[in-house]
Structures are given as C-alpha cells and as structure tokens.
Amino acid sequence: MNSIISVKNLTKIYDNGFKALDNLSLEIEQGEIVALLGPNGAGKTTLISAICGLLSVPENKIIVGGFDVAKDYRKARSLIGLVPQEITIEPFEKVKNTVSFSRGLFGKPKNSHFIDQLLKDLSLFDKRDSKNMMLSGGMKRRVMIAKALSHEPKILFLDEPTAGVDVDLRKDMWQVVARLRKSGVTVILTTHYIEEAEEIADRIGIINKGELLLIENKTALMHRMGSKNLVIDLQQAANKIPESLSHYNLKLSDDGLQLHYQYDVRAQKTGIVDLLSELKKASFKLRDLQTSQSSLEEIFVNLIKE
Questions:
Q1: CATH number assigned to the domain covering 3-223
Q2: Which residues of 224-256 are buried (b: 16+ CB within 10 A; e: fewer)?
Q3: Tens digits of per-residue pLDDT, 119-160?
Q4: Paired strand residues for 21
Q5: In which residue ranges of the chain is CATH 3.40.50.300 found?
Q6: Would the pTM of this model clear 0.70, i.e. be above it?
Q7: Which of 31, 142, 265, 266 is most buried, with most CB under 10 Å away?
C-alpha cells in the first residue's frame, strides 16, 4: 500500500520554548485506521494540526496525498476532514445548512442527495431542520463529523471524538468509522479510551512528550497491554525462589515478603491455580492475594522505560 500521509523528522517549538513535537516521523497507509494514544499534552493535537496545515512548521516535512502541506496547502487540505475536540458550530443555524455550508467552503458543488445520505448515516436526518442549539452534546459531535465529511475527503482526523458522548452514541460513531474504512477513507483518531483503539484501529501509536514512542499492529500491542499482576503476600520472608518454581517467572520483592506473577488475562489458563498449589508444596505460607491491572497511564510509563 502507498502512504497517504508522510511526516519526516517533524519538530515544533513554540515561542515560549515549549517543544511540542520532537523529531517525529510517521507513515500512514491509505485506507487504514490509526489510533494515537498519549497523556494530555503529549503532542497528539499538535501533530494533527501540523498535518492539517494549521501550524507553521518547516517545509518539506509533511506530505499528504502527494502534496507538500507547506507548498500546496489547498490541495493537501482538500483531502482532509477534521473533527477537532471543541464543538464549533453556529448555534442558530439548521443542521443541514451547517453541513452544506462546509461543503461549499471546499468549492464542492451542491449535492442534496449526498448531504441527506450523510445525515442518515450519522442518524441526523430527523434533525436536519433543527437548530444546532437544540441538539444534545452527542448530536452536536455528530454534526461536527458530518461537516468534516461534507466535502468527501480521503482522510478523516478525529481528535477525541467521543469526549462527552454516551456509550450508545459512541458505538454508532465507530460503525460510521467502519463504513468509512470500507469506502477507502483513511482514519486517524486520538483517544483516551484504550477500548476504542482496540475495537477499531489497525495500528496504535503511542505519543509522549512530543515523541512517537512506537507505532505497531494493534494485536501485538494489545497483547503487551493485556497482562495482570498477581501479588502474593507471604507470612515469612523468602531468601530466593525455589528452582521448582522457576518456570513461572516469579519476581521476589527486595524484602522477600512478596511474590509477583504476571499473567495474560486473555489466556484460557492463567496458571494461578497451579502456582498456588506448587507454592503450598514448597512450604510457602501465604498471607494475602491481590491482583492489579495497569492503568493507561502506567502503560505509558512502562513504554517510556522500555
């Protein structure tokens, strides 16, 4: 497949000296869905803004659909639909007029049939004559998506698209994204919800402090994230882990009072029952058991350490 977006060694430093992007390179293939994950302030929105030509960056850094964003901004931007985090729609305008106006901004001819179908796909058709101010937060978010798709772009950026959206609307949005992928649209989204990335993304990228720490296949990355830690408190401190337990890859705490065992929550057998049985045979006396699963923030920290 051909890259529809190519970012090479992109650095963005603001006037106050803050480095939002640090020598970041990224290749996105046509028709794939990429989820960008990272804590607040990681650089996700800055990266999207740069690709969309909304930031001043050095030339020859970003190519969209074969066009240099700095030199051929209009041609590159015409390929992109952007749904920003903030809801920015005229409150007194009707839904259909809002979407149609956005289409006109990109020089596209009027097409009522296309706009109506777009509104139907986003479950907005019944609200087409309603003023934007009368819509719920989730419906306003859908109008933003309709605006971004009004000029039939080949690339769609979704910056935290489900912020403040209830579960049902969130699922509907991902169905729309799935349909877009089938039609060949490339989708790049940022999200704090790891389950969203797991649900629809082909690849997942991790951004922190302006650096792209990694970008890899969803299945491989989610396998790394899908582990739990069993902490076993001992009544008496142990000096070492017996050879008979070496195949469990246990870790002993510095004070010898805890054993740590990591296991895959997706596996049919976690090995916990067998482990506890063998601990008893090895004369370990247990005080307590507790399990924990890494939060998204902890996962980021682990990736940074790696």
A1: 3.40.50.300
A2: ebeeeebebebeeebeebeeebeebebebeeee
A3: 998 889 999 999 999 998 888 988 999 999 999 999 999 988
A4: 12
A5: 3-223
A6: yes
A7: 142
